Amino acid sequence: MVHVSAGTLKDLEFDQIRQLCAGYCVTTLGRSAVLEISPMALVSDVSHALNKVNEYHSSFDNNNTIPNHGFEDINKALKMMSIENTYLETSDFRNLASLAETANALILFFRKFKDYYPSLHEDASLMEPNKAIGLEVYAVIDKFGVVKDSASALLSQLRRDIRSVQGKINTSFARALDHYQKLDFLDDIRETVVDNRRVLAVKAMYRKKIKGSILGSSKTGSIVYMEPESTFLMHRELHNLQFEEQEEVIRLLKSLTSVMRSFAPELRRFQFFLTDIDVVSAKANLALTLNAVLPHISESKTLQLIDAYHPLLYLSHLKQGLTTYPQTIRMNQEHRIIVISGPNAGGKSITLKTVGLLQLMLQSGFLVPVKEGSTMCFFDRILSDIGDNQSIENHLSTYSYRLKQMRQFLSKCNPKTLFLIDEFGTGSDPELGGALAEAFLEEFNDRQAMGLITTHYANLKLLANELPNLVNANMQFDENTLEPRYKLITGQAGSSFTFEVAQKNGIPFGLINKAKKKIEGGKIRFDKTIVKLQKEREKMEKISKSLESEQKKKSKESDKMAETNAKIQKKLESYQELYDYNQRLIHLGQKISQIGERYGKHKLKKRLITEVMQLVETENAKKKQSQASKPKALNKPITEISKEVQDKIKTIRESKHKQVNKSVEKPTPILQIGDEVRLFDGKAVGTIESVEKGKALVNYGAFTTKVSIEQLELVKPVKP
After folding, report:
1. CA distance 409 to 536
2. Which of 48, 481, 496, 631 is deepest in the core (most CB within 10 A)?
3. Is the domain defined by 3-130+263-290 classed in CATH 1.10.10.10?
């Protein structure tokens, strides 16, 4: 079961993802369902939901487009049907029939294309198409929502009678209109409609000369609206017929409602099915907007997010035309906890939120904006402590709140937990708060939980370098421009660039120097060392990329040379064959010419025939011998040239490999207590105080630190 608090959902802005997704729904029930989405309890449910969204997402790129799934909410109609002696309106019946037809179309579609959409077909296969609902409805109601004349014999007769009486009323009224018009009793407008009845516009002075009923008058009183007596009597008959028609319509609607009651359970299932399809469709459309994919799901605790984007930040920047920088984050059993450091506004918190929000999305059935080849896993619990959470109502300060959070973390942390803590240890005295934070971090590590924290505390950076399963990381920062690069680099702690950022923001230089004097020199040197290490790392990355580029270039040149040599060899072989063929023809011509000359001198036919036969047999024998030895003769130079080309390529690659190794490999030193050492490519020199389990305790004067022996080079050995 997944445990995610409302606070964590708020910290990670999951509600905004739900709001975005709801905007892609086409039904009211779908929107309501999306707004209620939360991380699922069962792994099987999450996997099934993800597969459905991924299948729907794939339909955007193939020719088997999934049919429309829109429908009107029928919950009110279902509730009405549960009450005896009630009936539905014609619009309700049309909604029922439309819903059944839409569900039928999707069920049959997924049955036909079950190989393309196996998970969607799995849900659809739980139901059978039902054409009876539509047949029953459309036998009574037409496509415009009107009860058909053919619904019953009585209704058909009543409507014929109504049309007949309406025709008589119109004829009678037209006759009266012409008669009184000729007598000049009518106003210029002649007629109008009052209470849905045609009436004569009679001049007030002639109202007593017309037989009929007065139904009103104009505002000035100059016109009286009268219904002729003949049409008045017919309207009474029409009213009676319309009343009988309405009674028959209600009887038919009640009968149809009774029929629909038997289909109520099936209609509920259809509506639930279509609502789920609407949710899946909305998730797929959101994934299309975010360029999201389904990562590989690992059963082991592994997170490998390649080029991961924070979805809300990505969409916000997209609207503003700004660049969003993706992050690549790797976590596994060997590196369970990442300690991220670096300057403020460098992207630490966004990186933290990106991991948390993508994990919530995945476990709620959303595809996530990462690159293909990414790997994610499921957690039973996701804990977060992000932002300043002072509580006036509960009289809690920031630090009190954070301690309360840590207490909850300690009670819930286990190997199936993902925790996210921003600005870990802040809110109290740096020395005391840092020590307490260090103890918490050790406890989280002992419980084998996975997580990310951001911090400025040097002791936490050192702890991450010393404890197993912890790894330092930093957000890159350009020291020259003092602008963040929004790129996460693992394996090394980051500097906070406190004084550099202060200088950029206009703080007087003298004041900054005064502040520097108040801080222990060791801390400043330690921060400077980190800055230098970051610079050296950047240089190494550039050199590595340059060497890789050169290696690829040389490899292409070698391949091109081998291809050219092969073509030249083929042409040489072809020329050699042509030359040998021409030489044989010349030699054969010479032999035949000599035989002809001898025959011309001696006229000996037997000798001629014998010499010709000998020549033919000799040439045939040579031809057979040539064909038998040809593959060897031809293959030998090709093999030799191929071997030469391969040897050259191998030599070039070995030479390049040696150059790369020469630039990055360092000999493992044999160190002992008292030796003066320094980090590779570093400048600070320290003295070894102790060596234990492959690590050396190095004293730099202002501070000491444990460093792996492989990272040290000998500056000056201890005197014997």
Report:
1. 37
2. 496
3. no
What pairs with residue 186 in β-bridges? 202
- Fold held by 296-518: Rossmann fold (3.40.50)
Number of H helices, E strands in the chain: 20, 20
415-458, pLDDT tens digit by residue?
999 999 988 766 655 666 778 888 888 999 999 999 999 888 88
C-alpha span between 627 and 607 (Å, rounded)? 30
Beta bridge partners of 686: 677
Residue 267: C-alpha distances to residues 32, 69, 133, 138 (Å) = 19, 15, 9, 16
Burial of 634-673, coded b for 16+ CB within 10 Å and e otherwise, reads eeeeeeebeeebeeebeebeeebeeeeeeeeeeeebebee
Q: SS3 for 131-181, per residue? A: CHHHHHHHCCECCCCCECHHHCHHHHHHHHHHHHHHHHHHHHHHHHHHHHH
What string of DSSP letters covers 265-279?
A: HHHHHHHHHHHHHHH
* CA atoms of 592 and 310, how far apart (whole Å): 90
492-538: per-residue pLDDT in tens? Answer: 766 656 666 666 666 776 776 766 666 655 455 555 666 666 666 66
Closest CA to 342 of 424, 456, 487, 438: 456
Domain-by-domain residue ranges, the chain? 3-130+263-290, 150-250, 296-518, 552-664, 676-716
Q: Which helix (H) or strand (E) holds 696?
A: strand 695-699
State the CB neighbour count (10 A cutoff) for residue 333: 12
CB-CB neighbours of 122 under 10 Å: 14
Q: CB atoms < 10 A from the CB of 677, how many?
A: 23
Tokens of 526: 């330690």
DSSP 584-638: HHHHHHHHHHHHHHHHHHH--HHHHHHHHHHHHHHHHHHHHHHHHHHHHHHHHHH
Question: Residue 274's CB: how many other CB atoms inside 10 A?
Answer: 20
Q: Which residues, listed in sequence order, are joined to residue 341 by a DSSP beta bridge?
A: 474
127 class by beta-carbon count within 10 Å (0-12 exposed, 13-18 middle, 19+ buried): middle
Phi, psi of 191, rounded to the nearest 5 degrees: -150, 165
Is the pTM for the entire model greater than 0.85? no
Distance CA 717, CA 232 (A): 126
Q: Provide the β-strand partners of residue 216.
A: 225
Report CA-CA distances (Å) from 247 to 39, 83, 141, 255, 421: 53, 20, 16, 12, 70
Instruction: Report residues of the chain scoring pLDDT below 70.
Output: 1, 344-346, 387-399, 425-432, 477-485, 493-506, 509, 512, 514-538, 622-623, 625-669, 681, 702-703, 720
In what side-by-side order are the strands of the sheet with 337-341? 3-4, 381-385, 417-421, 450-454, 337-341, 470-478, 483-490
The phi and psi torsions of 260 (rounded to 5 degrees) equal -65, -25
Class of domain 150-250: mainly alpha
* 425 phi-psi bin (left φ>0, alpha ψ -120 to 50, beta other): left
Show the DSSP H helices in 379-449 as ranges.
398-412, 430-446
HSE, CB side, 13 Å, CA atoms: give it for residue 582.
Answer: 6
Whether the Cβ atoms of residue 554 and residue 652 lie closer than 8 Å to each other = yes
User: How far apart (Å, rounded) are the C-alpha atoms in residues 385 and 408?
Assistant: 11
Match 């030469």 to its residue by tokens.
Answer: 644
